[in-house]
Amino acid sequence: MTAPANTREYNGLTIPTPGKFEIDPAHTRVGFVARHMMVSKVRGGFSKATGTVVIAEDPLQSHVDVTIDAASIDTGVADRDGHLRSPDFLHVEQWPALTFKSTRVISLSGNEFKLVGDLTIRDVTREVELDVEFEGHAKSPWGQEVIGFSATTEIDREEFGITWNQALETGGVLVGKKVKIEIGAEAIRQA
Question: What is the pTM assigned to this prediction?
């Protein structure tokens, strides 16, 4: 792929000119990792995420708005997925979406930056800080201008009202409180 013409330099990094990019669900994954029985990690993700990335004239004023379909959770085990959709966890019938709306960009270093925003799960909103890496900017063979990025953060699920658990006979609990979120995304220029 060749780099599109509408790029600019910012602190030694080639970035797109200002505009609105729509998240490409076919090339985006919102994943998570949680401890299970204090001895292993369970990985899963959400297969349906939509949203926009707006690159501002001043890149530090750029913002992101994402909506995740809570029912699209998938850990590869149907029974577990059903439990995660239930009132014990995400309660998808009452709260069908998880959302993230950025509020500011802080501490830019090369292609890495911190993105602060409001994450809402089960109608509870908490400020989170994501470590983001700008992966690049290119033109697809179909003429679309595409940007890519990855991001990670860790949340305490209990702060969002997801408190279900079971004590283990050997000590500890069935499901860890901390959940690591891992995002890999592409977005296509709209304007």
Answer: 0.90
